[in-house]
Amino acid sequence: MKKPWSGRFTEKTADIVEQFTESISFDRRLWKYDIEGSIAHAKMLAKQGIIPKRDADRIIKGLKEIYREIEDGRFKFREELEDIHMNIEAALIEKVGDIGGRLHTARSRNDQVALDIRLYLRTEVKEIISLLKNLETVLADMAEKYLAIIMPGYTHLQRAQPVLLSHHLMAYAQMFDRDRERFGDALNRINVLPLGSCALAGTTLPTDRHYVAELLGFDFISENSMDSVSDRDFLLEFLSCSSIFMMHTSRMAEELILWSSEEFSFIELPDAFTTGSSIMPQKKNPDVAELMRGKTGRVYGNLMSLLTTMKGLPLTYNRDMQEDKEPVFDTVDTVKLTLNALIQMLPKIKFNEKRMHDTAGEAFSTATDIAEYLVKKGIPFRTAHEITGRIVRYCIDNSKRLSDLSISEYKSFSNSIGSEIYKFIGTSESVNAKKSYGGTSPEMVREQIKRFRKRLR
Ligand code: ARG
Known about the structure:
Layout: H1 15-21, H2 24-27, H3 31-47, H4 53-71, H5 84-96, H6 109-145, E1 150-155, E2 158-164, H7 165-190, E3 192-193, H8 209-216, E4 220-221, H9 225-230, H10 233-259, E5 267-268, H11 287-310, H12 325-345, E6 350-351, H13 353-361, H14 367-376, H15 381-397, H16 407-411, H17 427-432, H18 442-456
Parallel strand pairs: 3-4
Antiparallel strand pairs: 1-2, 5-6
Helix pairs in contact: 3-4, 3-6, 3-8, 4-5, 6-7, 6-12, 6-18, 7-10, 7-18, 10-11, 10-12, 11-12, 14-15
The chain binds arginine.
């Protein structure tokens, strides 16, 4: 097969070079966008009188035929034609003859590949945003459903203060909401038309880039032809957003793994989302959650990979940049798969309400409430902290819980303590009283969910 660029060459490309330089094995994924971009380009060329309208019509018809052939799996992709752009162009010329060669007027593969990947990513990011929205809805629904469940809140993985399970779930909902916002923000910089920049310098031909932008639904047009063929930071931004999303997912996955252990026994994962052991018959393993945690490393790797590829590249296009695609494709697949698995798994988790509630009340988790009770009695917080610390020490030494102490025992630590102290050390009382904005009281969490749902709409 003759190469579209063979004119100045006398020797045939080495086989190893074809293997080494090809990208058709993975960039074929861009075929739809490549054709869509070419059709818009052909329309513009005809409108501007750069190519005859008749030829443009024939080209567009040919491109549409190729579209159907690829869709039906009848198209033969050829490695020796390197990439998706040349595969489609060669097929077009085969189909419509020499006039097919007019399509590449005022265009280069450099702006073409930038266009294709922007069109591709625009579609995928919109889908990721809509999946994130589903995930957020799932979490808000769960938060609403489990408003009565109290659990231990942790710092340093040590029981700290009782909280509502709903509050804990909503913490993740908030993270995923910021992720959605971040992807939406990245979309503004993805949605920029690079086509018309040509190889790097623009063209002497009277093109109309605004018309192409309009046809392809781009909100912005790149301002600098050199920047626009060598810029990949819109991809890096996508990979960063994805890495942060995966980091959030990994934290949640880690908690699900911990919570489903015998030691915590807070939850039971659905059978359909766990796997067994090939040797230990009793085992039920949280593999899905583990893989969510594990795949996070893979997405970080993709970000690192492209950052490293781009580092130190001189302007403008360099073939190194062909290495941008696999990390991006892999990330899109991983993020979508992870989101779909989360959306389906989360609502099926069973929570062990009694176990969560019981552990929430242990480990002096309401000691801070005693300190705040003393503050309300006029004692400076540092002093109140010290008094409460001594109460806890006393309980530890005498194997007692805070609720076991008699009022005279309490009074021996501070005369300001009255019998109403018992109202402040109960688990539910403690949670109910956290009425500060954004706090864990049912009242506040209900309001939080309400505001959250409003943002989701
Ligand atoms: N397959 C190439 C890529 O993905 C397309 C652009 C090639 N341009 C060039 N001048 N070799 O980056």
